[in-house]
Amino acid sequence: MIEKRLTFGILCALSLFWLCAIAPAEEGKKSLTNEDFQRIAKKYLEAWGAGPGAPFIWVIVAMPNASVPLNIPGIAFGAEGLPVAGVTREVRGYMIVVNGKMAPESSLSSFLHELGHASYMRAHPSGAEPVAAEMAAILFFLEALGNEGLDELAYREARALTEMVDEPYKSAVARIADHPIWKKYSSPARP
Questions:
Q1: pLDDT-based confidence at 14, cuts 50/70/90?
Q2: Which helix (H) or strand (E) holds 161?
Q3: pLDDT in tens, 117-154
Q4: At what angle do helices 34-48 and 104-123 cross, to 10 degrees?
Q5: Comparing C-alpha atoms, which of 3, 5, 11 is closest to residue 120?
Q6: Residues 6 or more apart from 124 whose CB is under 8 A from it?
Q7: CA distance 90 to 182
């Protein structure tokens, strides 16, 4: 089961990277900065951890083919100088890895999309149904982009999603066709 979730997560991350890589930057608009990305990500991460018993969530920006360092807050190997041969800690949480080579707009879209997956997985701990998980991630990140005043980015992302032919994206887009958030951002007749 863990291998299926891990494989599913990796496929989603790779597909989302492709999705974000093809989204062209909009001419004449002020681009998001890395500081904007960090500010918005921090806001959503604080909301994630606000409830009692909230699982850990880590966000790491990494370059392709780089090893991903695992730094868990509050968990250390032991005080320096102590003869510790090993340590075991139970850790329940989620890790989001964002490609460090992307523009801040793509990084933010990827982060919010993956946070949508994590939110779905948090609500469905017995297992994620791939199409339902993708539906949740798409709606989460489009709504979040809209809430942040980034409607143009949400329109671009929705347009790119409509062009995806791979599963589970294709089925997810078909199943959210009547959802108000999807209708708002996928409509060719934008306001």
A1: very low
A2: helix 151-162
A3: 999 999 998 887 999 999 999 999 999 999 999 999 99
A4: 10
A5: 5
A6: 132, 133
A7: 38
